[in-house]
Amino acid sequence: MMKRTILFLFAAGLLFSCTASTENKTQKIAENYLDLFSKRKELDRILSFYSADFEYRNVSFESDTNDPKFLFEQFYGWKDQNFKYQTDQSIEIRKIVTNDSTIVVTGKSMPYTYNGKPVEGNEFVIWLDLDKDYKIKKQTDWFDYPMEEIIEAYNLKNSFKIQ
Known about the structure:
It is a single chain. It is globular and about 45 Å long. The protein has one domain: Nuclear Transport Factor 2, Chain: A, CATH 3.10.450.50. The protein contains four helices and nine strands; from the N terminus they run H-H-E-E-H-E-E-E-E-E-E-E-H. Strands 2-1-9-8-5-4 form a six-stranded mixed beta sheet, with helices on one face. It has a three-stranded antiparallel beta sheet with strand order 3-6-7, with no helix packed on it. The protein is of the alpha+beta class.
């Protein structure tokens, strides 16, 4: 009986340590990814976090893409020189929750100016699903954009539709 108890405790400990190890790995991936994300500079490095089979959805703007480079250059505007942040950090992380295949981040974007016009930061949730190689296969963003930005994006999106 004692051997079974010891064997059970050993197996439970091994299982727990494997789960904790995987969660530690995803936590470190999250921290490295978000550090790069916040600095808005190293496009090639941030793209290395993404799977070749990738899906993106922005809930607020009802937009999507399968191209992470397009996501950062066009959606996030990394190449747009009109974005000016007061510091080298564009986001403030409030909370990171991870498990073996998911990273969920809550935070706030930092205030910035765009074309000289001040823009307040906004709350966000970013949900990342990872593949078996710990690459981002799906990303869903919820940003609390100001209403005028949502209206502008809606009008822009509709102007591209063929009537």
